[in-house]
Design a protein that fits this description.
The protein has helices spanning about 5-10, 25-35, 50-70, 75-105, 110-120, 130-145, 150-160, 160-165, 180-185, 190-200, 210-220, 260-270, 270-285, 295-300, 305-315, 330-340, 350-355, 390-395, 395-405; strands at about 225, 230-235, 240-245, 250-255. It folds into 2 domains: about 1-125 and about 320-415, no CATH class; about 165-270, no CATH class. Mean pLDDT is about 85; it is low at about 360-415. The protein has a two-stranded antiparallel sheet with strand order 1-2. A two-stranded antiparallel ribbon has the order 3-4. The longest helix is centred in the first third of the chain and has 32 residues, at about 75-105. The chain is mainly alpha-helical. Helix 7 packs across helix 12 (about 260-270). Pfam families: DUF1800. InterPro entries: DUF1800.
Length: about 425
């Protein structure tokens, strides 16, 4: 049995039906969502993108002053705890806004794509205190504006964003033979090089070797952050000199520059293994945990992501086998709130928002019976949908789902499909 296009668009490729909201009638309307929504700023982070950049700079200054203050240890602890609480409360507001963005938006396909790509290029907010402010900014300024363009551009901006560089410790990586590396006796960190090959492009088991991982990490040296401004920077003094071979292609030279790692990213973006890896993940996200191989093959990555989405929508498997895909926790919560017409002035979702603000001293801890589960956006491993009876009875469990789906949970981990 095949689904009608309207039902498919709303349920399989969106966040479900909402009373009074007409589902997309054709593929052009779905593509219109991707084009139009990317031009509008999301409802998070609080204060907008420019405002959040300033908030991050201000936080860095406050933390710097705290470290340099002559206060006694007890006073310093109290001041730091006050800063932590303020940042965490702001983070909770961003989490709530992210949830309601998905609930209220008529652009369900775009919202699902934003979830997919934020999960694909996953980060984690509890890496450090500034990351509580950086992770919502990452989705708003790096992911969402670029999901209708080319994968090359999306890979570049996601890799270069401070959220990724901090999360994968690239900011600590130095070439062992670089000028500063030899002086400070600090060395290479392979995290970004490994995740770039294993998760973001080629995929696990695609034929790269440990030598490729190390060489990729060498090419990436120099890519770091400006710790004062918390922005991306390239520092030649920590970049490993010489040429480094990744998958048979040589990058770099005696003088290293930003062009070296960008060339690596561009080559990986168009690699056939990358196309296969991402096509399978897209089909698994929208259609089935075990998508048919003919559908994966038909979703060809030719650089234009809109064409990729079109190939997926056009394939006959996109309208078959309803119920083949279990909803992830974030999808489950959003779809339920949309069906209940939450946010229309009827008070629905208020309990969940309130629960999300409770227990400030333990806001990052999951309920005991959910500890260890992967989240939907930061670790979409195909877990079964939550039990609806238990979920409805316990708003705090819902609140945890909201946090974990925004990469807020300490139990989260990068997706490994």
């Amino acid at each position: 049995m095949s689904l009608s296009f309207q039902t498919m668009a709303a349920i399989r490729f969106g966040y479900g039906f909402r009373p009074g909201e007409a589902p997309p009638q054709n593929k052009d309307q779905l593509f219109g969502q991707v084009k139009d929504a990317a031009l509008r700023a999301p409802s998070f982070p609080a204060g907008g993108i420019d405002g959040r950049h300033q908030q991050i700079v201000d936080l860095q200054e406050r933390l710097r002053e705290l470290r340099q203050s002559g206060s006694d240890d007890e006073l310093r602890r109290k001041r730091r705890k006050a800063i932590q609480k303020q940042v965490q409360q702001g983070f909770q507001r961003d989490a709530n806004a992210r949830l309601m963005q998905a609930v209220l938006s008529p652009n369900g396909f775009y919202e699902r794509l934003a979830t997919f790509w934020t999960n694909h290029f996953s980060t984690r907010a509890n890496k450090s205190l500034p990351m509580r402010m950086i992770v919502p900014l990452y989705e708003a300024e790096a992911i969402r504006p670029n999901i209708g363009g080319s994968f090359r551009d999306l890979l570049r901006v996601a890799t270069e964003h401070p959220a990724m560089l901090i999360y994968l410790d690239q900011a600590q990586s130095q070439g062992p033979e670089s000028a500063r590396g030899m002086k400070q006796k600090k060395g290479l960190n392979e995290n970004l090089g490994r995740e770039l090959l294993e998760l973001h492009t080629l995929g696990a088991g695609s034929g790269y070797t440990q030598a490729d991982v190390r060489a990729a990490a060498m090419v990436l040296t120099g890519l770091t952050i400006d710790r004062k401004e918390m922005d991306v920077a390239f520092r030649p003094g920590i970049s490993e000199p010489g040429r480094h071979t990744v998958l048979g292609v040589s990058y770099g030279g005696a003088k290293r520059s930003r062009k070296d790692y960008l060339a690596l990213l561009d080559d990986l973006a168009v690699h056939p293994k990358t196309a296969q890896h991402i096509s399978r993940k897209l089909a698994a996200h929208f259609v089935s945990d075990q998508p048919p191989q003919e559908m994966v093959t038909a979703i060809r990555m030719d650089g234009d992501l809109t064409a990729v989405y079109g190939a997926m929508l056009d394939h006959p498997a996109a309208r078959r086998d309803e119920g083949a895909k279990a909803r992830q926790p974030f999808d489950y919560v959003v779809t339920g709130l949309r069906a209940l017409n939450a946010g229309s002035g009827n008070g629905i979702a208020g309990d969940f928002m309130k629960a999300d603000q409770e227990d400030d001293d333990d806001v990052m801890a999951p309920p005991k019976d959910m500890a260890g589960q992967d989240n939907a956006m930061g670790g979409d491993t195909g877990a079964m949908a939550p039990d609806p009876v238990n979920e409805v009875r316990c708003p705090r469990r819902y609140a945890y789902c909201l946090r974990s789906c925004l990469c807020l949970s300490p139990a989260s981990s990068p997706p490994r499909h």
